[in-house]
Design brief:
The protein is mostly helical. It has helices spanning about 5-30, 50-75, 80-85, 90-100, 115-140, 145-150, 155-180, 180-190, 205-210. Bound molecules: protoporphyrin IX containing FE (HEM). Protoporphyrin IX containing FE binds near residues 116, 174 and 185.
Length: about 210
């Protein structure tokens, strides 16, 4: 279900995001956007803002290179096409209804439900936007065309901050769900059930996944 490259890139991404968020919060504390919001020091990475910035650039290379590899792999291997599309409005409404009644089915791990598909595609889109806004903050002159997309420097900061907030919200939901369905967590570590080349469960895999 999750081939080795997907597992490796997923966990590298988790480490990179951890570094990016912790060091980003350190930099943020130096010049806050929301006057009332200072991140407690123990949640930040780096001794002071400049040190946090160095961690941020270190994490940035891992996040961007790993992200490009994941996106290229997902598109070239057909994984995104099989696992994240199509998303039918009917399935989406049904999934939301099931979730609200705590009746979401987890017997077939190999199939992402409509909410999962939207969450994964959404977090990837936010990942692209956070990199574009980050590049514009880092080198507003060299990447002036990118920076122009946002208007002024302060707007870029706010966009970058909102992307971070969206990723943090995603992680809270994502990790909670992974812990509630531990088999999905084990599958992201060990590979999970065997699937046929079209991405569906191979003969017998569905039964094994359910058991
Ligand atoms: C400790 C932190 C994390 C844990 C425990 C975790 C756990 C998991 C698990 C269990 C899956 C399997 C999918 C499923 O059955 O729904 C998964 C998939 C996924 N996770 Fe995470 N995750 C973590 C961090 C992250 C972060 C930081 C991101 C991105 C910001 C992320 C993005 C994704 C995506 C996009 C998938 C789908 C991968 C694919 O099928 O190609 N995860 N994660």
């Amino acid at each position: 279900m999750h081939p080795p490259p997907v597992r490796a890139m997923h966990w590298i991404n988790a480490v990179a995001i951890f570094i990016m968020i912790g060091s980003g919060w350190k930099i943020y504390n130096d010049d806050v956007i929301l006057g009332f919001l200072h991140v407690p020091d123990f949640l930040t990475i780096g001794k002071w803002a400049q040190h946090g910035l160095q961690w941020h650039f270190f994490g940035m290379w891992i996040f961007v290179l790993n992200g490009l590899a994941y996106l290229s792999y997902g598109i070239a291997s057909g994984r995104f096409r099989h696992k994240l599309f199509p998303i039918s409005p009917r399935e989406l409404l049904k999934t939301i209804g099931d979730a609200l009644r705590f009746r979401l089915a987890h017997d077939d791990l190999t199939h992402y439900n409509a909410v999962q598909k939207i969450m994964y595609l959404g977090v990837m889109a936010v990942g692209v936007l956070i990199v574009i806004s980050g590049l514009s903050l880092w080198k507003p002159v060299q990447f002036s065309e990118l920076a122009d997309l946002f208007g002024n420097f302060q707007t870029i900061r706010v966009v970058h901050f909102l992307c971070m907030a969206a990723i943090v919200a995603f992680i809270l939901v994502h990790v909670t769900l992974a812990l509630l369905v531990p088999r999905s967590l084990v599958a992201m570590l060990t590979g999970g059930p065997v699937v046929s080349p079209d991405g569906g469960p191979a003969a017998g895999a569905k039964a094994r996944a359910a058991g």
